Amino acid sequence: MYNTDVPSRNELPSAAKLVRSTIIAAIVALVLLVTVVMPAEYALDPTGTGRLLGLTEMGEIKEQLAEEAAADEAAQMAPVQSSGEEPASKPAEPVSEAIVTAEAEAEEPAPTPAAEPEWDDEVRVVLTPGEGTEFKLTMEEGATARFSWVSEGGPINYDTHGDGSGQSISYEKGRGVPEDEGELEAAFTGNHGWFFRNRNDKDITLVLRTGGDYGQLKKLL
Known about the structure:
Blueprint: H1 15-42, H2 49-53, H3 55-74, E1 77-79, H4 102-107, E2 121-127, E3 132-139, E4 144-152, E5 156-164, E6 167-177, E7 179-185, E8 190-197, E9 204-212, E10 217-220
Antiparallel strand pairs: 1-10, 2-9, 3-8, 3-10, 4-7, 4-9, 5-6, 5-8
Helix pairs in contact: 1-3
């Protein structure tokens, strides 16, 4: 068994050396905090080093995702009053059979069947710089909804995702996208839709249109 020799008093570092080492370690930690940790974690870059190393963008993405996740959890669901909805049509007034003759019926052109609307819902919302909003469709598992959205006034960031039945899913994310369209197939029964955020320095108008197999279009408050 080897026993370590006990150093003598002369071999031990002096109090001055310990203080100097502690100060140097503190300075190194402070430099790393300002140039690496703050840009990468909080998008704070007072020296500009984080931007040169690409760490500030990483921090911005983390902050954005954190804000969007917090908004998603805190928001409540409310039905959307679609601008495309129309009041129920009044019942047709009865027509006297006496004035309807076979001759008149022969002269009148056959009624043209009403065209089916392309979209079931359409909403428009103005977003100020930095503002976000979220729309979701109530859908059954395997149901497919059609969608089209456009950002008037500047591109927008979006996150297509869903939750419900004790599950959650992220379908697609995008940054600086002016418009998109396609189909959304529900991976499970629940709420599926989009979170939008305006990262421009001016107001933009988001126009969202939906149609297909879903229950309601809802907006997060």
